[in-house]
Every structure is written in structure tokens, then in C-alpha cells.
Predict the structure.
Amino acid sequence: MEAPSLYSLIADGQYRAISLGRDKWKSLIGADASLQLNCNKEGFNSQGYPRNSKARIGIIGNEQSNCGSTDSRIGFGTGGNPGKSITCGNVASYGPDNGNRYIKAMGYIMVQ
């Protein structure tokens, strides 16, 4: 994806899809990473319902067959329930593929 700046990709809050796949996102965390099996909405400003899991840059998941009440995420600039204090890392609950997780991480985003 090309853009004049990272800011231009995230500032307006609009969702912008990318397609790295679940495994690439999970590899950022390692063997302990966990996501719910459905939704898999990845990219910039990934979000379901406003109070649920969201990621400024990342992927969100859900146990239901929609992207509404998402309860799992991996990424940067994350928030929402559950684990709303974790802003970078992996949060997963309600039937994720590798157990419940509340993993705080420190991440770097390098822009060229």
C-alpha cells in the first residue's frame, strides 16, 4: 500500500484493508499468540463495534461469524474490551485458537 505518510493512512479513522494473513500477525507475538477464528479484519483502523477490540494497525478477530463484537486483536494502537489498557500486543478471549491472552508488547513502526 502506498501513501504520502503513515498519518494519512490512520488519521481519518477510515478502515484500510491489507492482506498479510493471521499467521503473519501472530508471528509478531510468537508461539503464545492467540486470535479468535472469525472476522480476521486486518489493516489500518480495524474495528467492529466501538467498545470492542480495535487496532490502529493490526488484526481483529471474533468467535461469531461477523466483525461486530470482536474480542481479540494483535497490533499497534490497540484498545477496546477486553483488555482495553493493552495498546500494543495481543488480547484474546471467548474461544481463541491458543487460549486467552493478555500480552503487552513494545513495538516499533519503521516508515520509509
In short: The longest helix spans residues 22-29.
